[in-house]
């Protein structure tokens, strides 16, 4: 089926998310929509899927204009979507999820047998190994994504939209997904592949449309030059490297031994982790999302109850201490999700800046809060970190993502630290702020503070780190120098030990067919 | 570009998948501990608390029952202390088995539930034995009272199940019951027939349902607030009319009417359970039917699948074309109608006129029953029966002749449902899984 | 309505707060200015909504009066032949009822005139006449203040919990426990004058705090929803008091009567305005409680923590704040204040314990706190207002035979209307104000409809509903949230904009907290912000 978008415009308040976008997806092609986080890709697809009403423009399917008042209409018209955040009901089984909204059966009774059959058939066709009776919340993310694909296909989707499908996948799983995409294309399904990862686009797309700030800024062939695509995507020539002096590591400041976390159901989340971090070095933690990175940082902060093992910071044991005590010991922390884990949305910028220090001098004496001291600190930090805010009394929720991240960073870095931990320090932040934040992190390292950076963006880890630890399924697979071969890192993220990965690379294997070894990589 | 590179073969020494270990859950000791404490309490209080000389009489069959050859004995008198100690000992044995099973992570499956149920029955009999020592427990009559008291709770709890399964918190059950009771009498009196009241009750409590849906779903007001305020509203409204119109002309507006009892021949003559199950008014039969229908509907039909999806993950439901807020409206309305039937039980079901605030907290007990019943119709019914049993017990104990029985203050039994619920929500009897989107308004973009 | 210093209301003023107002985007500012015409800003104001809410509530109340009035119903019977009768009867019924309500709540003009006439007959004039007459006239007002006293104190307790994201429905229970403790110490123990009173008040505070703390503990330790536990604790306290009043320890000599002996004179709150009025020192305590609320929430580290946990418990935890301890703290403070209200009620107003000592104060306090938006000034005003409705209603009942229950209906409706400003505007035909321009629609309605009622930070958190404190898979920025993040700061991605609690429904976290009973967690995720 041919899909055409003409002049699609979507406005939120005064913000134009999509500005007169034209897009044509031919039958049986993989059309990549490339753009930075926040360029308006998902908004566009949500318009296509009937989740948002467009403020202008029209959608044509096989040259017939269509109007969708909801996702139901879009589905009936043959559009399927695999959302970035899976639209699966966790306690339902695979079969139940697949049939939801499209249930087979008579007199309103569910025909589970037929739903199971559908799941099995589609699984077999694409070589998935999905049990129709498995409960979705028990499945690994990769499998959940396949359930989403089955769900879309079971509705006879002729156009399949995949929204950032690789964010949660290992390189190996990403390869498999690309195989599936090609198979679907060869069977005549049109695919819209949304991503911000250049390598994947170049590997699988038949055509590429680049979107920036809500506008189409260009279309390209997969053969197009990578740096050209990158600058098209971010809007200016990108400084791919961070200027930083070589590290001058001092003595070991943080010593982690046998750190383990098991959740209430007995699932091992963090498995016997050993780590050393020296003064004045950045240790990067790489890995696919969900391999224990979150638990590692949380355990370091005392946020994981029942952590086993030992964490020694400057000789003092941290396991068993409260988060407050650990913070007071001089640990600065930037959590991975600022809106969820770091900021109190109703609090002002000033209040957020002292959230972890509000009980200490000079902000408080005993139970008495000193608002003037809080404001003084806020004024200084806002100045230093160039936080764009109307006033330090504005609710932090009125700030843009980049400025919110600066607030979080300023809070963590605004005092003398004995350890600095930052998770996804630049997620959802614009390019200008990324550079600034990266420089601040390196500056902190150069002050002699031991730094841990956790990021699922391999490029970010490579840029910032002096050494890289790769996490896989709750454990540390190995710690390698920052200049290790990318392919080796990729294989390690898929579960290879460093040696095995090096051997495999030496023997010619690459992490994925998406890797372009010769050129520099893009954020 | 290229073709797929040969898949790298995973290396053997890669870490294993974090699987569910067979380690004990952190809360493994909760249930055995609770049961042990209860069993010991039974031993000490019920066993040693019963005078050695007294015996407790359990009346099972009564005159005129269908009891060929007296298979079911009539009055059974047992020495109170002996019985209590034996029962408590059995309870301890069960607790021990559960200790063993939990400690060694032996899967008992359904046996576990069965053991807990048996434990409960034994414990309750021990309690009755103690509470009624020196007197007679008319088991049939007690169950009959329980059934009458359970019906409004069950209907109320079903209202909660319907609405909360779709993601709308329903604190307004109390108001819905009250409006149902009010509507049944008002319309019944005006028309002169309890059957008219039976139809009017759900319609009247729909008013509360409409307001709940309008504010909670339509205007996305905090659902707990809406519920609390609607209860105040219902009390105010019904009391206002009770104080004016109904007082001015009770003949016309507030007559004690009663739905006829429908007796199923033969079955109703069975000993102990005959009258409880087969000699009731239509509301009781309706309750059984609604529980059955709702159970099938929620878990076996398209409607139920969609309702549960809306309550768990409304956005996912929306993306497959399900009308989230429409579903919620529907369920809230349906629920309030069901609760209206429960309200009708309070008036035309038992043959009394309407009285101010006559629901007297039953809506909150229904809420508790829904939670204890884990948002499942059958569970809700079971919890309603349990709570009604304590109420029936309290009423029976009030009529004991002085000098017999353990002299338990009725207030403690009245408190019991609430205390049980406190323990339930604290997770002592296992975690209750709440619909994930319960209480979260859905905004379509 | 409340002190502006508290930064409590990003959601209150949707039109303004939701605009990020980034200095770098003049377009946004200009648009904001042009959109904010005077008329619209009035129409959007909360004061108007409050006024209209009362108007509508009283209109509904009038309808009820009419339906229940015998004369009106009679006149309606022959409406077609003499419509004037119906209108006349209706007018009489409504005006008399509401006049009686005013007379019973604020100023008793006929009473004052009667006193004046009496004195004038005896030859008095000037101040001799006006003074006593005035004092007679304001008797209802003083009675209103007396009724308002426990209501305000209890509302302050409620406000503490609401602003900390906890839905304390347990006013009744905490009130009963506080009253029982104060009452018991008051009649059963002999102590010297001032000390006795202080000990009684302390007993009320401690008892209420401990009782509230139970719910806090269950929340902190087991994650049990405080909504459910506090409701259950209400009934437990009610039956416990009923039981206590059957024991000789509480009833004293007269065991048949379920009331306690009178509070000893040494433990009573002194009267403020002489023997003819019930107004007592509790009013001063109420004022102090209001000041305490302000201090606690905006000038203490404790309140800082409470509010942080209420708004985003996860962020608070990451910043080293013990969320569990905070929950206990909130419930202890809230319970202590409500318990204090119970103590004041029994020591000042009732002067003996009865089974119905708590009356409806527990639930009324919830509505007062909501109406007062959990701010100090708001609570003071709302408390007096609702107390006035209640005393006026009582007079209306005795004078006009209109049951006081009407007041309950009116109160409930006021709160409902205030909770849904779009409904109020819709009813007066100002519905368009909510959607001045098509693109803004979502912004405006969203901001109103979400939790305006609960405009303070805490209630906002609660309003966003339960769901998971930790939404695992939810952590990556969601477009369009990410859109705003990376691009010129614009509304769509801006967390201030209540785009949708939608996402908070996303039960993406399999290991999350869905397993706990929590129909109303303040550990609600901040929905769309994720």
From TrEMBL, chain A:
It comes from the Bacteria. InterPro entries: AAA+_ATPase, ABC_carbohydrate_import_ATPase, ABC_transporter-like_ATP-bd, ABC_transporter-like_CS, P-loop_NTPase. PANTHER family: CARBOHYDRATE TRANSPORT ATP-BINDING PROTEIN MG119-RELATED (PTHR43790), GUANOSINE IMPORT ATP-BINDING PROTEIN NUPO (PTHR43790:SF4). Transmembrane segments: none annotated. Gene3D superfamilies: P-loop containing nucleotide triphosphate hydrolases. GO terms for molecular function: ATP binding. PROSITE patterns: ABC_TRANSPORTER_1, ABC_TRANSPORTER_2. This is ABC transporter ATP-binding protein. Residues 3-238, 254-498 form the ABC transporter domain. Keywords: ATP-binding, Nucleotide-binding. Coiled coil: none annotated. SMART domains: AAA (SM00382).
